[in-house]
Amino acid sequence: MGSIPAVVTGKLYSELFCTIQDVERYQKTLAVVKTGMPFRYEIKQVSTRDGELHWYDVFVQKLDDGVVMTVMDMSGRKRAELNASRQTALLQNVVDQSPAGVVLTEPIYNASGHIVDFRYQLTNKLNAELTGYTIEQMVGQPISALFPGWQQLSLFESMVSVLQTGEPRQYTEEYNNYGVKGWFEYYFVKMEDAVLLMFLDVTRLKTAQVAQQQQADLLQNVVRNSPTGIVLYEAVRDAETGHIIDFIHALSNPTNDNVTGRPNGGVVGLQVLEYYPTNRTNGHFDILIEVVETGQPQRQLLDYRAHGINGWYDAQYVKQGDGVLFTYLDVTESQLYRSQLEMANRELKRSNDNLQQFAYVASHDLQEPLRKIQSFGNLLQIQAGAGLGETARDYITRMQQSAERMSLLIKDLLSYSRLSVQPDQHEPVSLAELISDIFDDLGIVIEQTQATVSAGDLPVVLGNQLQLYQLFQNLVSNALKFSSIDRTDASAPTVSITARKLSGPALLEPGIPLELSTGSVDQCFQEISIQDNGIGFDEKYLDRIFQVFQRLHGKSQFAGSGVGLAICKKVVENHGGAITATSQLGKGATFRVYLPG
């Protein structure tokens, strides 16, 4: 006990042990002498020999009129117990602080050697709180004592399998038993003849994943069934400069697959310019770059006619990462309806304008002279009729009748212009035969002007024979009329008529009337050109020459009513076509008529 035996020998007990504890032990030692009943106690003190804490086991028993005290140094064993206790406490603390539930179980076998249950050897606070028990209530207890019938759960089967095979097992499943509900990720591992189960509560994560998956499924369903074409483009950049040189199709929905003719996402992975090179020139590629670089969304009405795609599309471009989400809706039908409505509105406006112009002229410029002729004729008949000869009276009567017929004709023309009725039906008309008839009818004029007229291969078109005759007869007559007799050169007038068929991109050529490109994407037109070498005109008057009663020259220079080209325009519009002209003063003119066909 740290004292030298020689020093202890002969000393009184009270001299060596004088603490309160020593006094208590002294009293118990006296009791041993009196009663003969031995007792044992433990002493813990710092040794004077090595300065370390020591533990001693002291056994006191009676011997004659005294006692024998047997002292055993148990410091080594005590230190081992303390270390084990500290390790156990540390392990329990680690287990309790774990974010996972921890359960260590040992199997319980029946008489046949089959595992019928497991017993808790260790668990932590998380598992205890989850189940509603304390750690003390759980450790040492069979699981079935706390959770009857748990052997029917997959947990029991997993623990038996891991114990028997030694193979760890891990899975995630939904749990809803014994008042506990949620999603848990389980991990089972064998530890000698026990099974360690660790689990994580992943309910929030799983709920978020389920919600995310539902949202993704919903979005995918919307994308898959949307009537809107949806394409995700990802930028392809130059490795050195970082500039965008192309885009890759990263996503395509079935609507876009149908439009492009590549089913099942056939465009995915394809580069835009490699497979659709016209996108570089039609503005689509430039818009993609602008959206990526500026981040500003774009929207436009896209007229796309290439790579087997023909139509109008309401297109929107939105930046998505280093790419563009491109969505579009086929509005070809509505665009055609809109174009037809606009054309109808323009036609109505033109008709009203022409009607107003014609009504004004008919009411003032034309009717007024006729009224004077009729009035003076009546006065002449009344005041001088008796003194006139039969021939003179006949002349006056004829004059009156002619004036009356002229007045009636003007009124009829006014009524016709107000109707603006298109022909009830169209029939095939051979323009070759029609032009030949016109040349024959104008034979005297052609001969008088010594003109040369010619016609190439001309098509058959659907139309009204009478109106088409008026159209081309007026154009040929004008070509002959405006070949001035005062020409400075010696060349005779020439008039040539040619034709060609236009469709698709050709309708977008410069000089083609804009209204032709707003029709059906597969519509064709016949372009008939009437070219002369006459006096020509300044193109700044192009719109004016097709208006009713508009003239560029006085009546003293060239005869005419100023209605001929207006009639031409009305005829081609009634046939769903267009008319335009190009010219230079002194170098002739070319009138181009466009008729469906």
From TrEMBL:
It is an enzyme of class 2 (transferase). Keywords: Kinase, Phosphoprotein, Transferase. It catalyses: ATP + protein L-histidine = ADP + protein N-phospho-L-histidine. InterPro entries: HATPase_C_sf (IPR036890), HATPase_dom (IPR003594), His_kinase_dom (IPR005467), HisK_dim/P_dom (IPR003661), HisK_dim/P_sf (IPR036097), PAS (IPR000014), PAS-like_dom_sf (IPR035965), Sensor_kinase/Photoreceptor (IPR052162). The keyword ATP-binding does not apply. GO terms for molecular function: phosphorelay sensor kinase activity. Residues 361-597 form the Histidine kinase domain. CDD domains: HisKA, PAS. Its EC number is 2.7.13.3. This is histidine kinase. It comes from Spirosoma montaniterrae. The lineage of its organism: Bacteria, Pseudomonadati, Bacteroidota, Cytophagia, Cytophagales.
